[in-house]
Every structure is written in C-alpha cells, then in structure tokens.
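In this supplementary section we document a worked example of the pipeline. Step one takes a protein sequence of length 95 as its only input; no multiple sequence alignment statistics are reported here. Step two produces a three-dimensional model, which step three serialises into structure tokens for compact storage. The input and output of this example are shown verbatim.
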Amino acid sequence: MEHLVRVYNEKDRRTLEWLRKHVGDATIAAAVKRCAGGKPFLSSVCRQIGVRPPDFVASVSRPAPTATGEQALATIRGILAAKSLATNGAIARMH
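The serialised model returned by step three reads:
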C-alpha cells in the first residue's frame, strides 16, 4: 500500500497499518483514487474515508550505551574539565 500513499516516517507506517486493519485495502485504494494529484498524504485518505486514526507517537528508540561510547564520553569529559580548570586558573591569576 505504500506505493499508493505518502509514507514519510514511523507514524505514517503505523497509521497505514491501522487503516489497513480497520477499513481494508480496497477502501484505501478507492479513497486514493478520489484524492486529486499524485500520491496523497494519509490525512487526505483518512478524510476521504471519514475516519480519524489514533494519535500514534513516533517511537524513538535509543541504542544501549556501549563500552566504546562510554569511554569516548569519559575522555571528552576529561578534556573539557581540564580546559575548564585551566581557564579558571588563568582568570584567577588575572585578578
């Protein structure tokens, strides 16, 4: 069905999946034909059908921290702390 409508992100994919389960592919295809222009947005298809899909929140999955990443962050924090101490020391000597 993604070849018929604009699907840009995970929220769109979930919306299309919901539509397919609730109204079926034939209803979606008929609504697409009634929309003007090329590939319609899912919101236009929903309006044509007369349904309002649930608000799907795009899931943002965060990868688990790795030992390499944690080591890199520790190194960066060390560099920043050293620069901060050097800057504070130079400012203290100026006064």
